[in-house]
Amino acid sequence: MGFFDKFKKKEALPSFSDENIVAICSGKMIPPSEISDPLFQQEMMGQTIGFVPSKGTFVCPVNGTVTMTFPTGHAFGILGNDGNGYLVHIGIDTVSMNGKGFKTLIKQGQSVKAGQVAVEVDLKAIEKAGLSTTTMLIVTDKKEADFKVNYIPFGAVEKCQIINQ
What we know:
- By secondary structure, the chain is mainly beta.
- The chain has 2 helices and 11 strands, in the order E-H-E-E-E-E-E-E-E-E-H-E-E.
- The strands form 2 sheets. It has an 8-stranded antiparallel beta sheet, with no helix packed on it.
- The chain is globular, with a radius of gyration of 15 Å.
């Protein structure tokens, strides 16, 4: 961090309601059928969508509390203020990188806002390791048994764009 960095204004986060779910990164939002890993493709952990990231900044999808962060930085969980649990899993088989190229900016127990930067990733390091950068957003716990996110149509998205209808 340079000397003048501490004088820069912090970028203000847009304000989202507890019902909003935002794109966790810029890139292309894809259906589970386009995810190469069967665990995520078959939605075994819960309702799943994928993102093919164009940049290595990943944000919290919802307002809530961080329930877990992996020491390797490849995944984190949030209990949303809406009562539902969400898991972000960055890349496929990236746990094997042992944290190389991942920088986690959130901590377990921390209160977070949708759009807050959670993890910064060197996407080139993932590709160099021969792994996929496809990132999953999974609804792991549901407040109501019939809860299902109604997502916007798949395609190009910008980080922090609201993706539920």
